[in-house]
Design goal:
The complex is a heterodimer. Chain A is mainly alpha-helical. In chain A, 76% of the residues lie in helices and 0% in strands. In chain A, 43% of the residues are buried. In chain B, strands 1-7-6-2-5-3-4 form a 7-stranded mixed β-sheet, sandwiched between helices. In chain B, helix 6 crosses helix 8 (188-205). Chain B is α/β, with parallel strands linked by helices. Chain B has a single domain (2-205), classed as Glycerol-3-phosphate (1)-acyltransferase. Classes of the chains: A mainly alpha, B alpha/beta. The A-B interface holds A 58, 61-62, 64-65, 69, 71, 74-75, 77-78, 81, 260-261 and B 19-20, 22, 126, 155, 158, 161, 164, 166, 168-171.
């Protein structure tokens, strides 16, 4: 419930700052995202599996629509979609070994084999790599949130997987907003001018410091000590930034501004989950190493 | 009724949830007046996607014009085409007969239906446009007051290309232009080329 109160605060801050049409749409979409996240991910673990699987599906579909594909790639793209079901099933039943190798090992070996059966050698390497890359980012990476949901409470703490998911998603999204706000307020020096001209050093540093503090504030959602929470905050802020610019890199490569049109003011779903593709797996393994 | 159920339970959920569409220029589509909808053609899905743009209660009013040699091939296909989709069969062969081959289409428009026409005449290669045939222009000459709405469809040829049975989801892009009408002094060839040019340009926007 803290999330809602906090969102209200952010929304009012943004509203006071400026009310352009795009910003209004963006804030409106934020409410839909928050509503969908609470309903989809926070109420029931089984529902959450379907919710995160759906996000993976939508993201993968947006990605496959953006990238150039050959007609012969349709078969492996179909397998890529199908693999989502298994990945989230492994996450849901808590089969860690299979969850962690299904895409990086089995799909990685299977897709080229299927391409051999089709037999189109021209463009094999580029096209198969593109599909595997999408699987790693939008299915493997994101599904760490789903697996995190199933983590039990750590001895001596009453917080379990669900709170950890809330923690990393909340901080990742706050990091995006903070980077934007700090950048608007103080931004001068571009940090990666060729990839994302709107990102500034001031925005990054401002968000990095603020988010590290917030990570400690919200550490009641985790079993972390203050020092661990501080490290988690720095990890999420840094990784969130990288995820964001990596997706920008994809969009620049293809030559589009927004990845899609699903969310008014935000662009497509890839534009919204870009940071999560990095923070979800990294935060998961950070926590998993420390406590599980 | 069959058509309504088919669209309510199968086509619309599939179009909107499984692959998803992105529509530009929806306001250019009239739900109430009969119109001639003209689009490029790459997939069997094209017809279903275009029909899903209309509200369900209007679905019985939307009639795609389809090749008789394919869609009336045998009794089963013919039953499906007429009962579930509601096509107006059109012969692709030149036949000698007393009535004009487009006469049933003109009658449907007169009765207040909207029709869907693919002037390429065939689905062709995925995501490539072939030359338009002049049927639309002839029809426009016969019914000069009915607006012609050019639509570009992108991506349907990736979801379900000609000769494939496996459906693979991609987001389908639909760009709808504002309606055009054939000018009084405009020739059949000129109007056909104008439409082809328009739809080609729509495809370049995105």
């Amino acid at each position: 419930m803290g999330i809602l109160a906090f969102a209200t605060l952010i929304v009012s801050v943004i509203f006071r700052a400026k009310t352009s049409q795009e910003l209004k749409e963006r804030v409106y979409s934020w409410w839909i995202i928050i509503g969908a996240f609470i309903l989809g991910a926070m109420l029931n673990t089984t529902v959450a599996m379907f919710f995160f699987a759906l996000i993976s599906y939508l993201a993968l579909k947006e990605y496959f629509t953006l990238i150039p594909t050959r007609r012969t790639d349709r078969r492996i793209i179909f397998y890529a979609y199908l693999s989502i079901v298994f990945q989230y099933w492994f996450a849901g039943i808590g089969w860690y070994g299979m969850f962690i190798i299904w895409i990086p090992v089995y799909l990685f070996l299977l897709l080229p084999f299927r391409q051999v059966l089709i037999g189109e050698t021209q463009g094999f390497l580029e096209n198969t790599s593109r599909v595997q890359w999408g699987l790693m980012m939008f299915v493997f990476g994101l599904s760490h949130l789903a697996y995190m949901m199933t983590l039990p409470a750590v001895a001596g703490h009453d917080v379990a997987g669900k709170e950890l998911v809330l923690y990393v998603v909340l901080l990742t999204e706050l990091n995006d907003v903070l980077q934007y706000l700090w950048g608007k307020a103080l931004g001068r020096h571009k940090i990666v001018p060729k990839v994302s001209p709107n990102k500034t050093i001031e925005g990054f540093v401002g968000a990095f410091v603020t988010l590290s503090a917030l990570a400690v504030v919200f550490s009641f959602l985790t079993p972390f000590t203050t020092l661990q929470a501080l490290a988690a905050g720095m990890l999420i802020s840094g990784a969130g930034f990288v995820g964001d610019v990596v997706i920008s890199m994809v969009k620049r490569d293809i030559g589009v501004k927004d990845s899609g049109h699903l969310l008014p003011g935000h662009g497509g779903i890839l534009d919204r989950i870009d940071s999560l593709t990095y923070t979800a797996p990294l935060f998961f393994h950070f926590t998993y190493y420390l406590y599980y | 009724m069959l058509k309504w159920l088919f669209f309510a339970l199968i086509v619309r959920p599939a179009v909107l949830l499984i692959f998803g569409v992105h529509v530009r220029g929806r306001e250019n589509l009239s739900h109430d007046k009969p119109s001639i909808i003209v689009a490029n053609h790459n997939s069997h899905l094209d017809t279903l996607v275009l029909m899903s743009l209309f509200p369900l209660r209007k679905i019985h009013r939307i009639r795609p014009v389809a090749a008789a040699d394919y869609f009336m091939k045998n009794r089963l296909i013919a039953w499906f085409s007429t009962q579930f989709i509601g096509i107006i069969p059109l012969s692709r062969k030149v036949e000698k007969s007393h009535t004009h081959p487009l006469e049933p289409v003109r009658q449907a428009l007169e009765a207040g239906d909207s029709i869907i026409l693919f002037p390429e005449g065939s689905r062709g290669e995925a995501e490539q446009m072939s030359k338009f045939k002049s049927g639309v222009a002839h029809l426009a000459k016969m019914t000069p007051s009915v607006p012609v709405i050019p639509i570009y469809l992108g991506g349907a040829g990736k979801v379900l290309p000609k000769g494939e049975a496996l459906l693979v989801p991609f987001i389908i892009d639909i760009t709808i232009a504002s309606s055009v009408q054939i000018e009084e002094d405009e020739g059949i060839q000129e109007f056909t080329e104008r439409l082809e040019e328009m739809i080609h340009k729509l495809g370049e926007i995105h």
